[in-house]
């Protein structure tokens, strides 16, 4: 708590003239019709609860009994027979299961040994160095192109003239 003498000293130094005047307006908001209805309903419910709720008594309630038809009776009878059949079933005997591990024959062992040796041989093979392969396409020279042109001209001449003679048309 604060020291009472310090509080009195602060109050005595207070000047009321330094304060600004503030006009206070009170706003009274009236409830609308929905709020009035909900409040009335709430007060009515509270009064009913306090006074005790009056229940309307119903005369006599008649219970209707619906009998099943033939299909429902047949289905129930079938289910009953099925349950009785399950109950009357003989119990099964306990059996101990033996696990038998058959060993491979001599041929299978020899084949597996051969495959193993092949794999080991592949693993022991020396590693090869990587080589970049460069493919070069050499183009024919000017003489070879000239010779091919002459051969092509000679072939076309021979085909069109029938062995050096002109065809008669």
Automatic annotation (TrEMBL):
Domain of life of the source: Eukaryota
Predominant location category: cytoplasm
Gene3D superfamilies: Single helix bin
Biological process, per Gene Ontology: actin filament organization
Entry GO MF terms: actin monomer binding
SMART domains tied to this protein: THY
GO cellular component, one term: cytosol
Cell membrane among keywords: no
Keyword Transferase: no
Subcellular location: Cytoplasm, Cytoskeleton
Annotated family: Belongs to the thymosin beta family.
UniProt-recorded name of the protein: Uncharacterized protein
